[in-house]
Predict the structure.
Amino acid sequence: MHEIGIMESTIAIAIQHAKAENATRITEITMRIGEMSGVYPPALEFAFDVVTRNTIAENATLKIETIPVCCYCDSCQQAFHPTDWIFACPHCGQLSSKILQGKEIELVSLKIVK
Ligand SMILES: [Zn+2]
């Protein structure tokens, strides 16, 4: 389960930021997860509980923003949201290899208590 590793590095960054602000606790963490990031949100939530144990982020709330996949069609010169996993353009049917978004695994924001 690679979600544990992702969460370990995310929490490490979060704690580093919080400590730089002289925070005593982290109460909320928001992450942005792309539909195509390969991350399974329920596994991420489980990893969050495990990784935050005995840290200043223990019992914090994890918020996950899901980012839909967005592709770009060169022929139509427009972005589209693919309806299946072959990324065919809904206008011309051409397969797109350009993915504009949907692979994000990002730490977005923190709520801290000083
Ligand atoms: Zn097209």
